[in-house]
Write a structure and sequence with these properties.
Distance between the termini: 8 Å
Number of helices: 3
Length: 133
């Protein structure tokens, strides 16, 4: 059972693909470094936002699993996108990718537009915090 409890007050707009608040009562915090679409060789994989999002999220979840966690343990995720309009245009597909890889236990989330990321070819970076029981 996850130590996270998702809170979505009726007074706020219905969340789509995120939770308004998450309380966490676990005993181990896992701080997940920002992950981009780097493959095992250190090269950016994919040329579209959905392709890169898939790899970046897979990388984040790989690090989380290596720390003993699962997607349901994510309490907070931040997505950094170099083109927020492109992110919004692909939101439905990105949501399908999230649900396929991480399920429907949504963390508190934010999407932040940035001028560029560490790797110039990177279109998206995802970091997060998980709370493990």
């Amino acid at each position: 059972m996850s130590p996270n409890h998702r809170i979505n007050p009726a007074e706020l707009s219905p969340p789509t693909g995120f939770s308004h608040a998450v309380t966490a009562t676990g005993s181990h915090l896992v701080f997940l470094a920002g992950q981009t679409a780097l493959d095992h060789r250190g090269d950016i994989s994919g040329s579209t936002l959905p392709e890169q999002f898939t790899t970046a999220l897979t990388n984040l979840l790989t690090a989380l699993r290596a720390a003993g966690g699962s997607p349901a343990d994510l309490a907070r995720v931040t997505v950094y996108a170099t083109d927020v309009a492109d992110y919004r245009a692909n939101a439905a597909e990105l949501g399908r990718i999230w649900r396929r890889l991480a399920g429907r236990d949504y963390p508190a989330m934010a999407v932040i537009g940035v001028a560029r990321l560490w790797d110039e070819q990177a279109l998206v970076e995802i970091d997060g915090t998980a709370v493990l029981p």
